[in-house]
Amino acid sequence: MKEHIVISKATIDRLPLYFRTLRLVQQEGTEIISSEELGRRIGVTPEQIRKDLASFGEFGKKGVGYFVRELIRNIGEILGLHRNWNIAIVGVGHLGWALANYKNFASLGFNLAAVFDVDPAKVGQLIGGVEIYSIDRLEEVARERNIHIGVITVPAESAQEVADKLVAAGVRGIWNFAPIKLNVADNVRLVSEDLSVGLSSISYYLSRQ
Amino acid sequence: MKEHIVISKATIDRLPLYFRTLRLVQQEGTEIISSEELGRRIGVTPEQIRKDLASFGEFGKKGVGYFVRELIRNIGEILGLHRNWNIAIVGVGHLGWALANYKNFASLGFNLAAVFDVDPAKVGQLIGGVEIYSIDRLEEVARERNIHIGVITVPAESAQEVADKLVAAGVRGIWNFAPIKLNVADNVRLVSEDLSVGLSSISYYLSRQ
Protein backbone atom coordinates (compact mmCIF):
# COMPACT_ATOMS: atom_id res chain seq x y z
CA MET A 1 0.00 0.00 0.00
CA LYS A 2 3.06 2.26 0.22
CA GLU A 3 2.40 3.89 -3.13
CA HIS A 4 -0.95 5.18 -1.87
CA ILE A 5 0.75 7.32 0.76
CA VAL A 6 2.21 9.64 -1.88
CA ILE A 7 -1.15 10.52 -3.47
CA SER A 8 -1.68 14.30 -3.18
CA LYS A 9 -4.58 15.65 -1.11
CA ALA A 10 -6.03 17.27 -4.23
CA THR A 11 -6.12 13.87 -5.92
CA ILE A 12 -7.65 12.22 -2.85
CA ASP A 13 -10.34 14.91 -2.84
CA ARG A 14 -11.16 14.13 -6.48
CA LEU A 15 -11.32 10.36 -6.00
CA PRO A 16 -14.81 10.43 -4.42
CA LEU A 17 -16.06 12.37 -7.47
CA TYR A 18 -14.56 9.75 -9.77
CA PHE A 19 -16.02 7.02 -7.61
CA ARG A 20 -19.53 8.46 -7.60
CA THR A 21 -19.51 9.27 -11.31
CA LEU A 22 -18.21 5.82 -12.24
CA ARG A 23 -21.03 4.23 -10.26
CA LEU A 24 -23.59 6.32 -12.17
CA VAL A 25 -21.88 5.28 -15.40
CA GLN A 26 -22.04 1.64 -14.31
CA GLN A 27 -25.74 1.94 -13.51
CA GLU A 28 -26.22 3.15 -17.09
CA GLY A 29 -24.70 -0.16 -18.22
CA THR A 30 -21.38 1.25 -19.42
CA GLU A 31 -18.44 -1.16 -18.91
CA ILE A 32 -15.61 0.90 -20.40
CA ILE A 33 -15.19 4.70 -20.33
CA SER A 34 -12.55 7.01 -21.81
CA SER A 35 -10.76 9.67 -19.75
CA GLU A 36 -12.36 12.23 -22.11
CA GLU A 37 -15.92 11.07 -21.32
CA LEU A 38 -15.21 10.65 -17.61
CA GLY A 39 -13.62 14.11 -17.53
CA ARG A 40 -16.59 15.64 -19.35
CA ARG A 41 -19.00 14.18 -16.78
CA ILE A 42 -16.95 15.19 -13.74
CA GLY A 43 -15.81 18.56 -15.06
CA VAL A 44 -12.05 17.98 -15.02
CA THR A 45 -9.63 17.53 -17.91
CA PRO A 46 -8.83 14.04 -19.29
CA GLU A 47 -5.17 14.80 -18.53
CA GLN A 48 -6.03 15.39 -14.87
CA ILE A 49 -7.90 12.09 -14.68
CA ARG A 50 -5.07 10.13 -16.32
CA LYS A 51 -2.57 11.81 -13.97
CA ASP A 52 -4.70 11.12 -10.87
CA LEU A 53 -5.34 7.47 -11.72
CA ALA A 54 -1.74 6.84 -12.80
CA SER A 55 -0.61 7.96 -9.35
CA PHE A 56 -1.90 4.75 -7.79
CA GLY A 57 -1.72 2.13 -10.51
CA GLU A 58 -2.32 1.07 -14.10
CA PHE A 59 -5.95 1.04 -15.15
CA GLY A 60 -7.67 0.59 -18.46
CA LYS A 61 -6.23 0.09 -21.94
CA LYS A 62 -4.55 2.79 -24.02
CA GLY A 63 -6.95 3.83 -26.78
CA VAL A 64 -9.74 1.77 -25.23
CA GLY A 65 -10.54 3.36 -21.87
CA TYR A 66 -11.00 2.43 -18.24
CA PHE A 67 -12.78 -0.71 -17.09
CA VAL A 68 -15.56 0.79 -14.97
CA ARG A 69 -16.13 -2.06 -12.52
CA GLU A 70 -12.40 -2.53 -11.88
CA LEU A 71 -11.85 1.20 -11.38
CA ILE A 72 -14.78 1.50 -8.94
CA ARG A 73 -13.38 -1.40 -6.89
CA ASN A 74 -9.88 0.07 -6.86
CA ILE A 75 -10.88 3.63 -5.98
CA GLY A 76 -13.20 2.29 -3.28
CA GLU A 77 -10.29 0.32 -1.79
CA ILE A 78 -7.99 3.33 -1.89
CA LEU A 79 -10.59 5.50 -0.14
CA GLY A 80 -11.16 2.78 2.45
CA LEU A 81 -14.88 2.72 1.63
CA HIS A 82 -17.23 -0.21 2.39
CA ARG A 83 -15.36 -1.00 5.59
CA ASN A 84 -18.60 -0.16 7.40
CA TRP A 85 -17.23 2.80 9.28
CA ASN A 86 -19.58 3.66 12.12
CA ILE A 87 -20.45 7.33 12.19
CA ALA A 88 -22.17 9.37 14.90
CA ILE A 89 -23.83 12.74 14.35
CA VAL A 90 -23.72 15.13 17.29
CA GLY A 91 -26.26 17.95 17.11
CA VAL A 92 -29.69 17.53 15.52
CA GLY A 93 -30.35 20.92 14.01
CA HIS A 94 -31.47 21.08 10.36
CA LEU A 95 -27.94 20.31 9.18
CA GLY A 96 -27.73 17.29 11.48
CA TRP A 97 -31.11 16.13 10.14
CA ALA A 98 -29.98 16.66 6.56
CA LEU A 99 -26.78 14.68 7.09
CA ALA A 100 -28.53 11.87 8.98
CA ASN A 101 -30.83 11.42 5.99
CA TYR A 102 -28.16 11.87 3.31
CA LYS A 103 -28.50 8.70 1.20
CA ASN A 104 -25.01 8.88 -0.34
CA PHE A 105 -23.28 8.08 2.94
CA ALA A 106 -24.82 4.61 3.28
CA SER A 107 -24.06 3.88 -0.37
CA LEU A 108 -20.39 4.63 0.36
CA GLY A 109 -20.36 2.21 3.28
CA PHE A 110 -20.77 4.68 6.12
CA ASN A 111 -23.09 3.33 8.79
CA LEU A 112 -25.00 5.86 10.90
CA ALA A 113 -24.67 4.19 14.29
CA ALA A 114 -25.67 6.90 16.76
CA VAL A 115 -27.10 10.44 16.94
CA PHE A 116 -26.85 12.79 19.90
CA ASP A 117 -28.56 15.99 20.94
CA VAL A 118 -28.79 18.15 24.04
CA ASP A 119 -32.55 18.72 23.71
CA PRO A 120 -34.57 16.31 25.94
CA ALA A 121 -37.51 16.72 23.54
CA LYS A 122 -35.46 15.15 20.74
CA VAL A 123 -33.92 12.34 22.80
CA GLY A 124 -35.59 9.01 21.99
CA GLN A 125 -36.82 10.16 18.58
CA LEU A 126 -35.72 8.28 15.45
CA ILE A 127 -33.63 10.00 12.78
CA GLY A 128 -32.35 8.22 9.69
CA GLY A 129 -33.58 5.06 11.42
CA VAL A 130 -31.36 5.69 14.44
CA GLU A 131 -32.35 6.68 17.98
CA ILE A 132 -31.32 10.10 19.28
CA TYR A 133 -29.38 9.84 22.56
CA SER A 134 -28.75 12.52 25.16
CA ILE A 135 -25.40 14.22 24.61
CA ASP A 136 -24.69 13.37 28.27
CA ARG A 137 -24.22 9.76 27.12
CA LEU A 138 -21.88 10.68 24.22
CA GLU A 139 -18.73 8.99 25.53
CA GLU A 140 -20.51 5.90 26.81
CA VAL A 141 -22.57 5.27 23.63
CA ALA A 142 -19.77 6.21 21.22
CA ARG A 143 -17.53 3.62 22.85
CA GLU A 144 -20.28 1.00 23.01
CA ARG A 145 -21.19 1.50 19.32
CA ASN A 146 -17.54 1.53 18.24
CA ILE A 147 -17.88 4.91 16.51
CA HIS A 148 -15.05 5.59 14.03
CA ILE A 149 -16.12 9.00 12.76
CA GLY A 150 -17.92 11.78 14.64
CA VAL A 151 -19.87 14.43 12.73
CA ILE A 152 -20.10 17.68 14.68
CA THR A 153 -23.16 19.82 13.88
CA VAL A 154 -23.53 21.60 17.22
CA PRO A 155 -23.11 25.38 17.72
CA ALA A 156 -19.53 26.69 17.66
CA GLU A 157 -19.40 27.23 21.44
CA SER A 158 -19.98 23.50 22.20
CA ALA A 159 -17.95 22.04 19.32
CA GLN A 160 -14.57 21.68 21.09
CA GLU A 161 -16.14 19.97 24.11
CA VAL A 162 -17.96 17.53 21.80
CA ALA A 163 -14.72 16.85 19.88
CA ASP A 164 -12.87 16.17 23.16
CA LYS A 165 -15.55 13.70 24.31
CA LEU A 166 -15.52 11.92 20.94
CA VAL A 167 -11.73 11.55 21.01
CA ALA A 168 -11.87 10.41 24.65
CA ALA A 169 -14.28 7.69 23.48
CA GLY A 170 -11.73 6.47 20.93
CA VAL A 171 -13.11 8.24 17.83
CA ARG A 172 -10.25 8.88 15.37
CA GLY A 173 -12.10 10.80 12.64
CA ILE A 174 -13.86 14.13 13.17
CA TRP A 175 -15.96 15.83 10.52
CA ASN A 176 -16.67 19.33 11.80
CA PHE A 177 -19.41 21.66 10.51
CA ALA A 178 -19.24 24.11 13.42
CA PRO A 179 -17.72 27.45 12.32
CA ILE A 180 -14.74 27.23 14.66
CA LYS A 181 -11.19 25.90 14.59
CA LEU A 182 -11.00 22.68 16.63
CA ASN A 183 -7.88 21.34 18.31
CA VAL A 184 -7.42 17.55 18.27
CA ALA A 185 -4.48 15.19 18.83
CA ASP A 186 -2.22 14.39 15.86
CA ASN A 187 -3.57 10.83 15.62
CA VAL A 188 -7.08 12.17 14.96
CA ARG A 189 -8.08 13.01 11.39
CA LEU A 190 -10.02 16.29 11.43
CA VAL A 191 -11.85 17.62 8.38
CA SER A 192 -13.69 20.91 8.83
CA GLU A 193 -16.34 22.07 6.38
CA ASP A 194 -16.86 25.79 5.94
CA LEU A 195 -20.06 26.47 4.02
CA SER A 196 -19.10 30.10 3.51
CA VAL A 197 -16.12 29.14 1.33
CA GLY A 198 -18.15 27.99 -1.66
CA LEU A 199 -20.37 31.07 -1.55
CA SER A 200 -17.40 33.43 -1.15
CA SER A 201 -15.71 31.76 -4.11
CA ILE A 202 -18.80 32.53 -6.24
CA SER A 203 -18.84 36.09 -4.88
CA TYR A 204 -15.16 36.50 -5.83
CA TYR A 205 -15.81 35.56 -9.44
CA LEU A 206 -19.11 37.45 -9.78
CA SER A 207 -17.46 40.65 -8.53
CA ARG A 208 -14.98 40.34 -11.42
CA GLN A 209 -17.56 40.13 -14.21
CA MET B 1 -7.70 45.07 -9.84
CA LYS B 2 -5.56 43.15 -12.35
CA GLU B 3 -3.31 41.67 -9.68
CA HIS B 4 -6.30 39.93 -8.10
CA ILE B 5 -6.87 37.84 -11.20
CA VAL B 6 -3.66 35.87 -10.65
CA ILE B 7 -4.55 34.69 -7.12
CA SER B 8 -4.65 30.88 -7.10
CA LYS B 9 -7.93 29.08 -6.39
CA ALA B 10 -6.36 27.48 -3.31
CA THR B 11 -5.59 30.95 -1.95
CA ILE B 12 -9.08 32.21 -2.79
CA ASP B 13 -10.54 29.22 -0.93
CA ARG B 14 -8.46 30.11 2.14
CA LEU B 15 -9.40 33.80 2.13
CA PRO B 16 -12.85 33.21 3.68
CA LEU B 17 -11.16 31.33 6.54
CA TYR B 18 -8.77 34.25 7.09
CA PHE B 19 -11.69 36.67 6.88
CA ARG B 20 -13.84 34.80 9.41
CA THR B 21 -10.97 34.22 11.83
CA LEU B 22 -9.85 37.85 11.65
CA ARG B 23 -13.37 38.98 12.51
CA LEU B 24 -13.38 36.71 15.58
CA VAL B 25 -9.97 38.14 16.52
CA GLN B 26 -11.35 41.67 16.08
CA GLN B 27 -14.35 40.90 18.30
CA GLU B 28 -11.85 39.85 20.97
CA GLY B 29 -10.43 43.36 20.75
CA THR B 30 -7.16 42.45 19.01
CA GLU B 31 -5.90 45.15 16.61
CA ILE B 32 -2.67 43.53 15.39
CA ILE B 33 -1.99 39.81 14.86
CA SER B 34 1.14 37.92 13.77
CA SER B 35 1.11 35.39 10.94
CA GLU B 36 2.14 32.80 13.57
CA GLU B 37 -0.93 33.48 15.76
CA LEU B 38 -3.28 33.75 12.77
CA GLY B 39 -1.86 30.50 11.36
CA ARG B 40 -2.27 28.74 14.70
CA ARG B 41 -5.94 29.74 14.86
CA ILE B 42 -6.72 28.79 11.27
CA GLY B 43 -4.57 25.69 11.13
CA VAL B 44 -2.20 26.70 8.32
CA THR B 45 1.49 27.61 8.46
CA PRO B 46 2.59 31.25 8.96
CA GLU B 47 4.54 30.89 5.69
CA GLN B 48 1.33 29.98 3.87
CA ILE B 49 -0.46 33.01 5.30
CA ARG B 50 2.37 35.39 4.38
CA LYS B 51 2.47 33.90 0.86
CA ASP B 52 -1.31 34.13 0.42
CA LEU B 53 -1.56 37.72 1.65
CA ALA B 54 1.54 38.85 -0.27
CA SER B 55 -0.16 37.67 -3.47
CA PHE B 56 -2.56 40.61 -3.38
CA GLY B 57 -0.72 43.39 -1.59
CA GLU B 58 1.39 44.60 1.32
CA PHE B 59 -0.22 44.23 4.71
CA GLY B 60 1.07 44.70 8.22
CA LYS B 61 4.52 45.57 9.48
CA LYS B 62 7.52 43.22 9.48
CA GLY B 63 8.12 42.07 13.07
CA VAL B 64 4.87 43.67 14.20
CA GLY B 65 2.04 41.80 12.50
CA TYR B 66 -1.07 42.43 10.44
CA PHE B 67 -3.48 45.27 11.15
CA VAL B 68 -6.70 43.32 11.74
CA ARG B 69 -9.24 45.93 10.67
CA GLU B 70 -7.33 46.80 7.49
CA LEU B 71 -6.87 43.14 6.58
CA ILE B 72 -10.57 42.36 7.11
CA ARG B 73 -11.54 45.24 4.84
CA ASN B 74 -9.08 44.21 2.13
CA ILE B 75 -9.94 40.52 2.12
CA GLY B 76 -13.64 41.40 2.10
CA GLU B 77 -13.10 43.61 -0.95
CA ILE B 78 -11.13 40.92 -2.75
CA LEU B 79 -13.87 38.35 -2.08
CA GLY B 80 -16.51 40.81 -3.24
CA LEU B 81 -18.34 40.49 0.09
CA HIS B 82 -20.79 43.06 1.48
CA ARG B 83 -22.06 43.91 -2.00
CA ASN B 84 -25.42 42.59 -0.82
CA TRP B 85 -25.55 39.70 -3.23
CA ASN B 86 -29.11 38.41 -3.40
CA ILE B 87 -29.29 34.66 -2.98
CA ALA B 88 -32.19 32.27 -3.59
CA ILE B 89 -32.45 28.78 -2.16
CA VAL B 90 -34.29 26.25 -4.31
CA GLY B 91 -35.50 23.17 -2.45
CA VAL B 92 -36.58 23.28 1.18
CA GLY B 93 -35.47 19.90 2.51
CA HIS B 94 -33.47 19.82 5.74
CA LEU B 95 -30.36 21.06 3.92
CA GLY B 96 -32.32 23.97 2.41
CA TRP B 97 -33.66 24.79 5.87
CA ALA B 98 -30.19 24.59 7.38
CA LEU B 99 -28.73 26.91 4.72
CA ALA B 100 -31.63 29.37 4.94
CA ASN B 101 -30.95 29.70 8.67
CA TYR B 102 -27.14 29.72 8.42
CA LYS B 103 -26.19 32.95 10.22
CA ASN B 104 -22.73 33.27 8.63
CA PHE B 105 -24.15 34.10 5.20
CA ALA B 106 -25.84 37.31 6.32
CA SER B 107 -22.69 38.34 8.21
CA LEU B 108 -20.75 37.99 4.93
CA GLY B 109 -23.20 40.26 3.12
CA PHE B 110 -25.30 37.59 1.41
CA ASN B 111 -28.94 38.49 1.46
CA LEU B 112 -31.47 35.65 1.37
CA ALA B 113 -33.99 37.16 -1.05
CA ALA B 114 -36.17 34.21 -2.08
CA VAL B 115 -36.80 30.54 -1.31
CA PHE B 116 -38.56 28.06 -3.57
CA ASP B 117 -40.09 24.62 -3.16
CA VAL B 118 -42.30 22.28 -5.16
CA ASP B 119 -44.44 21.30 -2.15
CA PRO B 120 -47.71 23.32 -1.98
CA ALA B 121 -47.80 22.70 1.79
CA LYS B 122 -44.54 24.65 2.19
CA VAL B 123 -45.44 27.51 -0.18
CA GLY B 124 -46.32 30.65 1.77
CA GLN B 125 -44.43 29.57 4.91
CA LEU B 126 -41.59 31.72 6.22
CA ILE B 127 -38.02 30.41 6.35
CA GLY B 128 -35.08 32.49 7.52
CA GLY B 129 -37.55 35.39 7.47
CA VAL B 130 -38.30 34.87 3.79
CA GLU B 131 -41.47 33.58 2.13
CA ILE B 132 -41.35 30.23 0.32
CA TYR B 133 -42.56 30.53 -3.28
CA SER B 134 -43.78 27.81 -5.61
CA ILE B 135 -40.98 26.56 -7.86
CA ASP B 136 -43.35 27.28 -10.77
CA ARG B 137 -42.62 30.98 -10.16
CA LEU B 138 -38.82 30.50 -10.05
CA GLU B 139 -37.93 32.47 -13.19
CA GLU B 140 -40.43 35.28 -12.53
CA VAL B 141 -39.48 35.81 -8.85
CA ALA B 142 -35.72 35.32 -9.40
CA ARG B 143 -35.81 38.09 -12.03
CA GLU B 144 -38.06 40.36 -9.93
CA ARG B 145 -35.81 39.95 -6.83
CA ASN B 146 -32.62 40.41 -8.86
CA ILE B 147 -31.13 37.11 -7.63
CA HIS B 148 -27.34 36.92 -8.16
CA ILE B 149 -26.68 33.47 -6.69
CA GLY B 150 -28.94 30.42 -6.74
CA VAL B 151 -28.45 27.68 -4.14
CA ILE B 152 -29.67 24.30 -5.43
CA THR B 153 -30.83 21.87 -2.72
CA VAL B 154 -33.34 19.87 -4.76
CA PRO B 155 -32.97 16.14 -5.60
CA ALA B 156 -30.43 15.27 -8.32
CA GLU B 157 -33.12 14.56 -10.93
CA SER B 158 -34.51 18.13 -10.79
CA ALA B 159 -31.21 19.99 -10.33
CA GLN B 160 -30.37 20.63 -14.01
CA GLU B 161 -33.86 21.98 -14.73
CA VAL B 162 -33.61 24.31 -11.73
CA ALA B 163 -30.15 25.48 -12.85
CA ASP B 164 -31.47 26.18 -16.37
CA LYS B 165 -34.38 28.24 -14.98
CA LEU B 166 -32.05 30.21 -12.67
CA VAL B 167 -29.68 31.00 -15.55
CA ALA B 168 -32.63 31.92 -17.79
CA ALA B 169 -33.66 34.40 -15.06
CA GLY B 170 -30.24 36.06 -15.22
CA VAL B 171 -28.61 34.31 -12.25
CA ARG B 172 -24.81 34.16 -12.79
CA GLY B 173 -23.76 32.20 -9.71
CA ILE B 174 -24.89 28.65 -8.92
CA TRP B 175 -24.07 26.85 -5.66
CA ASN B 176 -25.08 23.24 -6.16
CA PHE B 177 -25.62 20.67 -3.40
CA ALA B 178 -27.40 18.09 -5.58
CA PRO B 179 -25.18 15.03 -6.15
CA ILE B 180 -25.00 15.47 -9.92
CA LYS B 181 -22.78 17.23 -12.46
CA LEU B 182 -24.60 20.33 -13.78
CA ASN B 183 -23.97 21.93 -17.15
CA VAL B 184 -24.08 25.73 -17.28
CA ALA B 185 -22.88 28.41 -19.72
CA ASP B 186 -19.28 29.63 -19.39
CA ASN B 187 -20.42 33.00 -18.05
CA VAL B 188 -22.05 31.29 -15.06
CA ARG B 189 -19.92 30.55 -11.99
CA LEU B 190 -20.82 27.06 -10.74
CA VAL B 191 -19.58 25.70 -7.43
CA SER B 192 -20.73 22.18 -6.54
CA GLU B 193 -20.49 20.87 -2.99
CA ASP B 194 -20.04 17.15 -2.52
CA LEU B 195 -20.62 16.19 1.10
CA SER B 196 -19.18 12.73 0.54
CA VAL B 197 -15.72 14.16 -0.21
CA GLY B 198 -14.96 15.20 3.38
CA LEU B 199 -16.12 11.87 4.77
CA SER B 200 -14.19 9.88 2.15
CA SER B 201 -11.08 11.89 2.95
CA ILE B 202 -11.41 10.87 6.61
CA SER B 203 -12.02 7.27 5.56
CA TYR B 204 -8.87 7.35 3.41
CA TYR B 205 -6.70 8.38 6.37
CA LEU B 206 -8.38 6.13 8.94
CA SER B 207 -7.86 3.11 6.70
CA ARG B 208 -4.12 3.85 6.76
CA GLN B 209 -3.72 3.88 10.54
From TrEMBL, chains A, B:
InterPro entries: CoA-bd, NAD(P)-bd_dom_sf, Rex_actinobacterial-type, Rex_DNA-bd_C_dom, Tscrpt_rep_Rex, WH-like_DNA-bd_sf, WH_DNA-bd_sf. Residues 17-56 bind DNA. Residues 80-181 form the CoA-binding domain. Gene3D superfamilies: NAD(P)-binding Rossmann-like Domain (3.40.50.720), Winged helix-like DNA-binding domain superfamily/Winged helix DNA-binding domain (1.10.10.10). It holds the Pfam family Put_DNA-bind_N. NAD(+) binds at G91, V92, G93, H94, L95, G96. It is found in: Cytoplasm. The keyword DNA repair does not apply. Transmembrane segments: none annotated. Keywords: Cytoplasm, DNA-binding, NAD, Repressor, Transcription, Transcription regulation. The keyword Cytoplasm applies. Modulates transcription in response to changes in cellular NADH/NAD(+) redox state. Belongs to the transcriptional regulatory Rex family. PANTHER family: REDOX-SENSING TRANSCRIPTIONAL REPRESSOR REX, REDOX-SENSING TRANSCRIPTIONAL REPRESSOR REX 1. Homodimer. This is Redox-sensing transcriptional repressor Rex. The gene is rex.
